[in-house]
């Protein structure tokens, strides 16, 4: 094929092309908004110039420790300034950030650090006991000993134990700032590795790239119409999907990171009030805690607050409760493999004319693809044909585009399976409604088949959430000799609330077909991930291990 005239003498060069990377957002905000606030944490305050300086000092220190392109830096940190700086410094030297889940045990932490071949570990003193054990196991079992840097956050009230060779602030003081956070050689280079162990027992290392992180950070702005200097509260753990790319979104806007070590309702409302926070993200359980909080905790908040919810389909009671608090809710959907949220339930102006019940139904859907995600559809997982948009035919949600992972680290078979047919398979079962919005019916493993009939656990949970005594719930299959499976409900009550199992079953009878009603209700604390996502696999295991009733 002859060369086009537009290919002659028009090559890319350093003047007209640069790899996309969110590190550029940090450099720009430091240039343009140098003296404006960037980070708030307890008594500590940093401007964008100071935040960039601290990140660039960390970058220099890491480089002198031998960290370079493709090397992994693991971090075991709370939502503190050091966690933000790691999100800027590590990609800034083209290394790979591995944010560790602070709720994991030592064995799994050691396994993950070995699997991604961590060269450096940055760890908060709060986690010293478990990390000391993890590092010992890493050395004894895997023969690996990363350089360890200790963070002693003054907002942590416990003992400041150290497990490494150098303290974080001393490290920064000993190194000059790198002239520029350079970013990647290639935008396809890995920016992070995150493990998907939240709701399954089979962790896989999800490798994401600079291009996707850059684009999803921009998408966060567009789906929320976020302004310059937005104040964002860190209720979402930054270790979860790199905080849904919001560390980089806030940098893009020259905004303010309002840090929070622990997710407690009083602290959340105080931060919103004291720092005029306009935005935060969380799983449904956190929003429900805010709804259930004492009214006096909410006093003094008069400005507009917008919240993003993901992790599970928000129940109707939660959507209604947030509206009652005056917090505007945006429902997003995604997975670790698509950088956190990559779909949004876009609220159309015409929905304002609908009844409250219809608004709740519309806003409870998973919605449509993010603006910079190329494709989102519901397809038959076998034929890969798109299902009709009839709101009835069930298929699997699939994504394709720039906001999709590179693949699973050291697991080519799982990567190929996930990308079968040129789409990323989420494993979430959904219908496509006539307006093109997707609505999840269930994870494939969460569908309960009772007497040949399919029962959506989400549908049953939504009914349970409508009872005023229910704070959180999960419905799973329990083996049954006659029906094969029957639904059993695990319920966590609101503080001070009382209700019987019989009363909840009677409540379900008013809204569900007989075969969908839970045969049993159990009251207990539900196992959750650090982001508040209920770990159904543990409940399924508990229900399945019992004697099958006759």
UniProtKB/TrEMBL annotation:
Single GO BP term: fatty acid metabolic process
Keyword Cell cycle: no
PROSITE patterns documented for this protein: AMP_BINDING
A family per Pfam: AMP-binding
Domain AMP-binding enzyme C-terminal: from-to ranges: 459-533
Keywords: Fatty acid metabolism, Ligase, Lipid metabolism
Residue span(s) of domain AMP-dependent synthetase/ligase: 27-409
GO MF entry, a single one: ligase activity
Similarity-based family: Belongs to the ATP-dependent AMP-binding enzyme family.
Full protein name: Acyl-CoA synthetase
Organism for this UniProt entry: Pigmentiphaga aceris
